[in-house]
Design brief:
7-stranded mixed beta sheet; 130 residues; 4-stranded antiparallel beta sheet
Length: 130
Amino acid sequence: QVQLVESGGGLVQAGGSLRLSCAASGRTFSSYDMGWFRQAPGKEREFVSAITWSGGSTYYADSVKGRFTISRDNAKNTMYLQMNSLKPEDTAIYYCAADSMGSFRRRLGVLPNRYDYDYWGQGTQVTVSS
């Protein structure tokens, strides 16, 4: 129904910045709430940030608040994650995800989680050196 492709990952020194992009194709991207997740080796996939379909509401994990900024451009079918002041503990594969059924908003949770999302990209590697 929708395909998601991440890009922009790479190797960066601690304190540096990266900008991730998630390009969507298929159907009705502009009506989907979207999110970013990450997974480090041996760890569970964890929530990073999310944004509603209009961009009117954003959410951030405590670990990235103040350093990362999520945004979207529905005209370009693209979502972004600007990552500043990167730390070695940010090293992970970053995944783009779509909540096509509005699961998070319907359950009235405090923050989105991975079970709210039903479409996923393949991921892009972010490595932060010390």
